[in-house]
Amino acid sequence: MLLNNLDDYMKKYPNKRPDIIQQYGTAGFRNKADTLFHVTFRSGILATLRSRSTNGIIGVMITASHNPEEDNGLKIIEPDGSMLEQSWEKLATKIANIPDDNLEQCIADMVKELNINLKDTVAKVYLARDTRKSSPSLSIALMDGIKACHGEFQDFGLLTTPQLHYIVRCANSNGQYGEPSEKGYYEKLSHAFLRLTEHSKQQKLHLIVDCANGVGAQKMKLMAPYLIEKITFDLINIGDGTLNLGCGADFVKVNQRQPDSIELKSNQHYVSFDGDADRIVFYYRNDRDGKFHLLDGDKISALVAKFLQQLLNESGLNNIEMIVVQTAYANGNSTKYISDTLKLISDCVPTGVKHLHHRALQSEIGIYFEANGHGTILFSDNVQKQIAKCSNENAKKLLHFIDLVNQTVGDAISDMLIVEAILDNLNLTIDEWDSFYQDLPNKLLKVAVKDRNVITTTDAERKCVKPEGLQMAIDKVVAEFGPQARSFIRPSGTEDVVRIYAEAQTKEMADNLARKVGNLVYDFANGIGSKF
Ligand code: G16
Questions:
Q1: Three-state secondary-structure class, residue 398
Q2: Domain named Phosphoacetylglucosamine mutase AMG1: which ranges (predicted)?
């Protein structure tokens, strides 16, 4: 039998809201938690089939990351630790939306079409969850889906999303990438960090970490003792408030201010994670102007690129190809810094770590960060071998650096240690890092419309194709704000909104530009625009 006890499971997990289309979007399924039980059960089936078709262990993380507490979602992880293969995203969407009565037939067709061997393969799924109240019951639905499809599972309970990505990769590489456990993760990263910083002149480092009231808080408590000889932490928003509310990486990036609960002190580094700890942004109070300064994913990219360039040159490995991958949200001045000052190639791809990861894989070293603080660095096997062959001190540092990076996906804990280790090695203050370039003033807005899918884009989301006439209207407005102005729009893949980004010479101009473009989006998407 293809599926076990399906009738019983269908009674337990009927699709109560067939009116809602569940989409496997930018980073998996996302929606109000109470609409996701049938989706989660079905994703258990899908993950089991993916495991059989790849002959590897698949991961499923239950989280809605930066979204509000009442949302939840699923991120499916490939055996190499990357995000679900794109052709399977479509299958995931199909299975999630098929009427209850047709589910078994749909699965049978899929098995046939993809030629999935059900007899001689073992299916295994690793699952974990964030701290949302709905996550434990969704975990049960997921395990039921795996059982229904005759799969095996291992439930890791609470983990950050990047920890699960890491463990899945380790397990599928037979331990070559590291020990497939949470403890293995702490040991590998902390060892690399301590070795990388052991010769620095600076004393102990200290960091204030806003954990967004999410899973990062519990995991930082476990990580901190491993690092105590070099760095200590004050953890805030550790679960005493509401998840992602008035705190966290998304709040800080969008509002360009510190979390409500923080009063900025001089000479202090601050970071904010998001709800599942796969994003990070840095900030501090600049004593010259007494103001909040944000160092986002673009600044992290610039710092990493500069450091790696220097180490590669000093190791005699300057022929290695290195690229920086960004999205349309990257600040115009960060792109300029990468190409004009660092003389590196930068490329722009659509939003979503999966797109950046894919592009970064095509280079020997691929540095990728979204402006929102989501990113990592990828090193090809060939480069790792080349570095391992060099015996100089800088090459040894590079090897420790590679061990500090979670190459599967953006990881707030790993990225936090990467930045601190680089600043320590280069003997740079946060202010000096901030002065690499000055961000063009910018504004992020979101607009709720009847159907966000009426907006379609091209050119890595920098141009709007539909509704017709909207791009022309945006171009006209942008032209009013001078040569440095830029704006684009795109439908979100994680929330039911259209996002608007604008940058211009002054903050006031950027705010005004975003507002004007927001009004255009509202009008065109609701059929009030001139040519709609
Ligand atoms: C997810 C993705 C990110 C993306 C973000 C926002 O982040 O992993 O790559 O930038 O959503 O996406 P959108 O603008 O389409 O809503 P997270 O941290 O929520 O998983």
A1: helix
A2: 205-281, 296-426
Residue 65 is among the residues annotated as catalytic for this protein: yes
Is residue 173, in this structure, part of any structural domain at all?
A: no
Name the residue range of residue 269's domain. Answer: 185-294
Residues 398 and 473 in one domain: no
Alpha-carbon distance of 337 to 343, in angstroms, equals 8
Answer positive or negative: Cα dihedral of 359, 361, 366, 370.
positive
Whole-number mean pLDDT of the chain? 96
Residues with CB under 6 A from ligand 1: 26-27, 65-66, 274, 278-279, 351-353, 370, 372, 374, 492-495, 499
For 270, list phi and psi in degrees, rounded to 5.
-120, 145
Please give the Cα distance from 145 to 9 (Å, whole number): 8
Residue 337 included in any domain? yes
Helical axes 182-196 vs 412-426, angle rounded to 10°:
10
Torsion angle of C-alpha atoms 210, 215, 221, 225, degrees rounded to 10: -100
Is pTM beyond 0.90? Reply is yes
Q: Whose CA is nearest to atom 6 of ligand 1?
A: 494
Instruction: Give the E-state strand segments of 401-476 in sequence order.
Output: 442-447, 456-458, 463-466
Query: Smallest Cα–Cα separation from 255: which of 443, 123, 430?
Result: 443
Average pLDDT for 314-330:
95
Q: Tokens for 456?
A: 């379609």
Top pLDDT among 2 and 460 is at 460
pLDDT at 1 over 90: no
pLDDT tens for each residue of 284-318? 999 999 999 999 999 999 999 999 999 999 999 98
